[in-house]
Specification:
Order of helices and strands: EHEEHEHEHHEHEEHEHEHEHEHE
CATH superfamily of the largest domain: NAD(P)-binding Rossmann-like Domain
Distance between the termini: 16 Å
Number of helices: 11
Number of strands: 13
CATH topology of the largest domain: Rossmann fold
Structural class: alpha/beta
Strand order of the largest sheet: 8-7-6-9-10-11-12
Number of domains: 2
Bound molecules: 1,4-dihydronicotinamide adenine dinucleotide
Radius of gyration: 21 Å
CATH class of the largest domain: Alpha Beta
Shape: globular
Largest sheet: 7 strands, parallel
Amino acid sequence: MKVTLYSAQPYDERFFEETHLEGFADEAFELVYQTATLTHQTTALAEGSDAVCVFVNDVLDAVVLEALAGMGVKAIVLRCAGFNNIDLDAAERLGFFVARVPAYSPEAVAEHALALAMTLNRHTHRAFNRVREGNFALDGLLGVTLHGRTVGIVGTGRIGLATARIFKGLGCRVLGSDPFPAPDFADIGEIVALDTLLARADIVSLHCPLLEATHHLINDASLARMKPGAMLINTSRGALIDTCAVIEALKSRQLGALAIDVYEQESGLFFRDRSSEIIDDDVFSRLMTFPNVLVTGHQGFFTVEALREIAQVTFQNLLCLTRGVHCDNALITR
Ligand code: NAI
């Protein structure tokens, strides 16, 4: 089976090759690594492939899926949990097998959410630069003690639950909001309505999927309901937040601090070195001017354990297809 991996970075190649050799060497997989993102312009790179393996910013709309089906591609395997970037109706109509990696390391993303909160709160990113320049002044580095503060977890699934456990361990009060709360959450915190969570939380951390119902969940109205000066963390999907509304809330000081690992327009920016380019996204550039904004480039998942798990589960998903057996991770079976 020939599999073309789109948006393939050197680390993807490393972990896929290692996993192939260690666990799947007897299987007839031929892996082709393409750095290009899957778009309308790059479908031809999958010519001759049985499957394409994609990541968060690859585009799998009806046009792309029709082009892939026309070339004989039979399967789409996602190297991620979220599947908001694929038109599942079109994929089903075209007879694709589609599978994902539902949980590669919830703790990896939860720990990154904690790292963002800690960094923003205690300004360690600024302290690091200051001390290296011989500046030991503390002015501007004042934080708050997180012990005893209230943290609101929006989406109490795998990652939300792991994040809740971490903040509980710090001695925070934990609130959750979820239409289908995880039963285990009851041992950690209290489930409340979103508005109550926004009004009470000192830190709001987003862990729900991007759906029609959650698109711009954080907007002018919800920002106005937040506790003044609260911190907002988004490690889930960029479009949960209306970035322009967040910029206004930062300017008015209603929002105290923002940390994002995901950004609504990230597909044109993230996962590439753009340090020699002019960034023409003015919204992103405005965000970067705030001292109380911290942005990382979708690295929440980026641990050794998670990359191993992604490769392992992706091979297993492909094996289910080749052997014609049930696949727990399938979104669509042929
Ligand atoms: P999950 O499916 O285990 O949990 C999602 C939870 O959100 C569920 O409990 C669901 O009921 C809840 N939910 C749905 N609609 C909601 C709403 N309107 N309000 C509040 N909660 C709602 O998903 P998991 O594994 O915890 O992942 C969460 C998200 O994290 C993924 O959808 C993905 O977008 C993102 N993610 C980000 C990564 C990164 O590197 N930054 C890596 C992996 C996932």
